[in-house]
Specification:
about 290 residues; ECO RV Endonuclease, Chain A; Arc Repressor Mutant, subunit A; 2 domains; five-stranded mixed beta sheet; two-stranded antiparallel ribbon; about 35% helix
């Protein structure tokens, strides 16, 4: 996705304004109101991309490592998940919005491939940039004059870059959560996944990644066990929580340890681990019932 996207000229008087404004209003209503799409779609993109990369099972940490067919599948998954998120009905194209047959197009490379059957119809455009963790959501009527002259082997044409101005942006160059594993040093990732049990891998996760929020989904992926939350609990001294505490590391839950997390000045999330060293930190932990 380009670092700079042109401002939209889809304003009153533009030939596509009425159609795209109606579609935007319908999408925003389905999402729960203005601003909700910018909150929901970035998280959806992170989930879809991570589900295909599958770092805990494949060792891959980036989109660039995926096979061509997997990259194509991401676009299909985005379409399916977006329809599910917004409860969009099926139409002659991917969906029907505000009375218009509408296609859903996703790109990780900066442009959208428009099939012949979608030419002349509205399209929902989704874009993600893994390197910068930025995304965009826009609407366009795929008029022939907006498309490139050349087509690929499937007779699909892309939107000519000078014509990006005809996209009505719902949000553009918007942040979305980065791939968690790309924020972890490669040697730490290797140490985490060399564990031969769920407990060992989860302990290594919280030992290696401290002071950073870790999601429930990340813990589940690392544990690779049905009762993965058991690895978090004390479990009569055998669980990750007690064993890390014996090493001086606190494994804190955003649900149950919020006051201590805030007292230590840590970011709030599902879980966060931390090794207190300063006297006031140790005192706060002991006051909260930790034996450190």
């Amino acid at each position: 996705m380009a670092k700079t996207l042109p401002a939209s000229i889809v304003v009153p008087g533009h030939p596509d304004f009425a159609t795209l404004s109606a579609i935007r209003a319908d999408l925003e209503r389905r999402a729960g109101g203005p601003g909700r799409l910018a909150a929901e779609v970035p998280a959806l993109l992170r989930e879809v991309i991570d589900d295909v990369i599958q770092t805990p099972r494949t060792g891959r940490r980036s989109y660039a490592e995926l096979e061509k067919t997997e990259k194509t599948y991401i676009g299909t998954r985005v379409e399916i998940m977006l329809r599910a998120l917004l409860k969009l009905p099926r139409g002659r194209l991917d969906t029907r919005v505000a009375g218009h047959d509408t296609d859903i197009k996703h790109t990780m490379t900066g442009n959208w491939m428009i099939p012949q059957e979608a030419v002349g119809h509205p399209c929902i455009l989704v874009a993600a940039d893994e390197d910068r963790a930025r995304c965009a959501l826009g609407l366009v009527v795929a008029r022939p004059e907006y498309l490139t002259a050349g087509a690929n082997r499937d007779a699909k044409r892309s939107i000519a870059r000078p014509q990006f101005q005809h996209i009505l942006w719902i949000f553009a160059d918007h942040p979305y959560p980065p791939n968690f594993w790309r924020t972890v040093p490669p040697d730490a990732v290797e140490r985490i996944f060399t564990g031969n049990s769920g407990n060992a891998r989860v302990m290594a996760l919280f030992r290696e990644v401290r002071g950073v929020p870790i999601s429930r989904e990340t813990v589940e992926a690392v544990a690779r066990q049905k009762d993965f939350m058991r690895r978090i609990r004390s479990d009569d001294g055998r669980g990750t929580r007690d064993r890390l505490a014996a090493e001086g590391i606190l494994l804190l839950s955003g649900t149950y340890d919020g006051p201590l997390i805030r007292r230590l000045g840590l970011p709030l999330g599902d879980f966060v681990s931390y090794r207190p060293t300063a006297p006031d930190e140790l005192a706060a932990a002991r006051a909260a019932g930790w034996r450190v």
